[in-house]
Amino acid sequence: MAVPTDDADVTNASEPELRRLGLTTDTTLPRALVHKRAVENVFLTAVRDVSGSPVVLAQLPRMHRYFNDTYLPYYDLLLIGEVERQAVEAIAHGLLGVPDGARFVIRAMAITLDDLPVLRVGAEPADLVIKIDIERARRRRNGPLHGMVGRASCWLGGRRAAGFTGTVHFVSEDGYAKLRADAAAAPDHGFPPHDRPVTPALVGRRDAANVVVSDLTVAADAAWTRLVVDPGHPVFFEHPQDHHPGTAVLEGCRQTAVAAASAVLDVPATRLLVTKCSAQFSGFAELGRITSCHAALTGEDDGCPVVSTRVTQHNTTVAEARMTVTAVDDDAMPVGGKAR
């Protein structure tokens, strides 16, 4: 049931106003609702239908072992992406009747950090208000929802901080089993022989455990890596997976793109942020196969380099991502002003 409100726009609502709408940060949503095993990886705290539109509340972590592993004091683009992924799952299950056992298969997504100063990590918790606009919903005849296209705006303190668009399919357990029936069995979930992650600072990370690429080669305006994701990683593999999860693939793209941009700009990777990302997934990145990533400078966006990345297995493309990389000066302010 939609919650009617005569209050000001929910994106600028005070905490008491949000509470009256049933949107609080008192506790996280049930972890199963957002397909998580570990509570520490659940960031949503409420989901409601407000005047006919889905609204989600999340609290962003400030000391997360992966999402805050950066040299720069900003909430991470892939954290926003993860929050949005959880929001889609919570809305689908909680408001749209998608069965609990359904698998979510993301086909395309785009994330933008619209205002870096707003996204700077501060002394107080950051309560993110997310408004969802479902542009297209596809249902089987007399059946459940099986696909959705939508966009979201993310607000902190009444200011728009980030945006998201995405296309997702909902697949039954039987349907997913058929979809994955032809996948070759991976011989091992460990690192391929001789592959070790690169030095963290070369890809903008502090913790070696969060480096997911090896064999880094940089030449002119391009970079090449191989994906090496630890199957024991507490975020990427916090529950069993039969393929490399999308977040790990995008992290590999991001790290490769940052390495390429670092060489082009002659700026340390520790001073670079990805502020825009658009991605398409054309297949599953299978475990146990050599997974390569290529990144190349392909343009500029408001003076910032745009890097196009491609992830392949056995010469077959499984994902592509286009990323805008922003350099940040020594005072931790974006060069040239806020991200656009």
Automatic annotation (TrEMBL):
InterPro entries linked to this entry: AfsA_hotdog_dom, HotDog_dom_sf
Residues in A-factor biosynthesis hotdog domain copies: 33-142, 202-326
Protein name as it appears in the record: A-factor biosynthesis hotdog domain-containing protein
Gene source species: Streptomyces cupreus
